[in-house]
Amino acid sequence: MTDSRKMKIDRDHIYVMQILFAVGITIASQSLDLENKHKWALNFARYVMYLLTVQASKPVCIELYEILYNKRKLDAQGFFSKANRTQAMMYAGSVAVIYLNDKKLYAEDFPFVFVAYLAVKYPEVATSTKVAVTYGMGMACSFIEGYLVHVVLPDGGTIKGLQDKIRAFEANNGVIFPVKRLFIIVTKSMHCPPDLKEFNDKSDREDVNRLEACLPLEEVIKDVAGVKNRNYKNSAYKIMRPNKKPVYIAAECATPLHTLYRVMKNRHLYEAIADVKVEDIVSDFVGTLRTVLAKSPEFKKTCELVCFDDTDENSNLSDVLLDKIRELEPNFEEFINRAK
């Protein structure tokens, strides 16, 4: 039996034991009035709603904290996509039961339930000194220290940083990059194609923007972890626009997510993590990556995360990238027109 399956069986057994424990306390206290089934159902719905409300308060507060203190934009779609659908249906059902019985959704006892929960949780918060490292956090750290450090930052010697490599590309090809950053594409499906043109509009229309690959930026060759002359390089793309000059950018997918995508496709080989919630891993990866990049003065000016819903057939990566460029450099058209 694999470790992951054993853990699942253990969780199931413990959950059943908790149910039996609750039933035992209820019977022993003789507080359950089975004759008044209507009142019993109403109280059950009310306390299910209370518990789900208290449980939801944590992710809501985390999202507000990120927006207020880390200046992160609200991603409503991403936030709600992480919600447990079963629990959402339970909440909606409980609200419906209470509402149809003409009762207050949150009665006078709710504040006591909430305050009691916070009081019980306080010792955990007060004594917690170590943060558990998740898969996603580890992936982000590995991506930064194992890859971005080598392709983005200069070494103070002969190896150029990303922005210097972009300037060399501009000089050699007579073009201009309006934003000299590495655009890191985070796809919803985690799929990362060999060429970003796969994310172009699938229609045959001639009035849409399209990505085309160019020559790569100057490669970085260095000795790393016992490997001699390891090669690193970034791809340059141009966004072809009808009746306008193309927009040049440095862009690529977040390769750790591509690795995770392949792992999930081969779950039978990786049974230890077969039952993990992929959404949580991606959320931790993106959150950690965004936080570290924002904290680092060097990365903050040279890397930009771009979330792209590749599951939407009507979505075009070129348009998403142009919106991001416009956000970072509102006058980018003027820069482009300076090119020869």
Explained architecture:
The protein is of the alpha/beta class. The chain contains 12 helices and 7 strands. A 5-stranded mixed sheet has the order 2-5-6-1-7, sandwiched between helices. A two-stranded antiparallel ribbon has the order 3-4. A hairpin with a 2-residue loop joins strand 5 (236-241) and strand 6 (244-253).
Q: What is the topological layout?
A:
Blueprint: H1 3-29, H2 37-69, H3 76-81, H4 85-100, H5 110-127, H6 135-152, H7 162-173, E1 182-187, E2 210-213, E3 220-224, E4 227-232, E5 236-241, E6 244-253, H8 255-265, H9 278-295, H10 297-300, E7 303-308, H11 317-328, H12 332-337
Parallel strand pairs: 1-6, 1-7
Antiparallel strand pairs: 2-5, 3-4, 5-6
Summarize the structure.
The protein is of the alpha/beta class. 53% of the residues lie in helices and 13% in strands.
C-alpha Rg (nearest Å):
26 Å
Gap between N and C termini, in Å?
A: 66 Å
| Silhouette | elongated
H-E order: HHHHHHHEEEEEEHHHEHH
Strand order of the largest sheet: 2-5-6-1-7
Task: Specify the helix fraction band.
Answer: 40-55%
Helix- and strand-based class? alpha/beta
Q: Descriptors for this entry?
A:
2',3'-cyclic GMP-AMP binding, 5-stranded mixed sheet, two-stranded antiparallel ribbon, alpha/beta, transmembrane, 340 residues
